[in-house]
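Appendix C reproduces, verbatim, an entry submitted by the partner laboratory led by Prof. M.T., so that reviewers can inspect both the input and the predicted structure.
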Amino acid sequence: MTRLAGFALATLIAAPALAEPLALSLPGGATQSAQASSPATSYALAVGPWQDGAIEHIALEGARSDTAWRLRANQNTTLQILAPLRDQLTEAGYTLLYECDTDACGGFDFRYALDLLPEPSMHVDLGDFRYLAARKGEEYVAITVSRSSESGFIQITDLSVQDVTPARPDNPLATPLPAAPLTTNATATPPSAFARALETRGSVALDDLDFPSGAATLGPGEFASLAALAEFLKANPDMQVMLVGHTDAVGSLAANIALSKKRAQSVRSKLISDYGTDPAQVSAEGAGFLAPRASSLTKEGREKNRRVEVVLTSTRS
């Protein structure tokens, strides 16, 4: 039975007819941060992007193993982390079923549709992650890669199939997950997933919001992150959150703190006016460029730093 990880993982079910264990070589310094397994479970393997309120997947049943790894002080990009793992899979005879990068995957909604180990063991930056799914015979593998400002993160999910739910006749690989509920005309991330992320980490970056450099106003449109946050607040009327704006490092600190607060206030106004959020549950502040998650020396880094995060602060008395 194939078990995938940076080092050989224990075989959960012995079967002489299955292949020998395959060990993926991870970057130097990788440390295992979490591991979970089940000898028999169901698993929805994503093989397409999130679109039209659904994600394409293969419904699988079998023995599953999940392992998360942290690459401390690793400054490689997500592509540089994922590419060697992908190459090892193809060299071992695996067929790639699907591969995507952040927005092409479906962004916020795709990430929360994935069944990943929780923070802080597996961190996913909603603005910078990659995913792939592969197959070899009855062995299926999903790899998710992301990073923080200073470390890389990898989760490897390996499932040895015992039975596969029949697929749709028009697509031999995939069948859609049920559509997510609609909230104020926007496709919302399942509230339970958003709630788990916010309550576990204490904060979530609303990475589907877009602020051009120097701009303070949030543009028109439907935002999955705001729909999910509004749903969370409606379901938890005693909860309070703070929206914290962040900028790149172009300009003075005072100007950027003022700009970041205006961005947070713009998001707060949209939550209240468009999503019906109780104003008493949401406040807004700005941190300027004091909490970067990437270097502001590059265009990519500056874009990542321009963001608004929601921070869970307290319950109302």
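The mean pLDDT is 81. Additional entries are available on request from the coordinating office.
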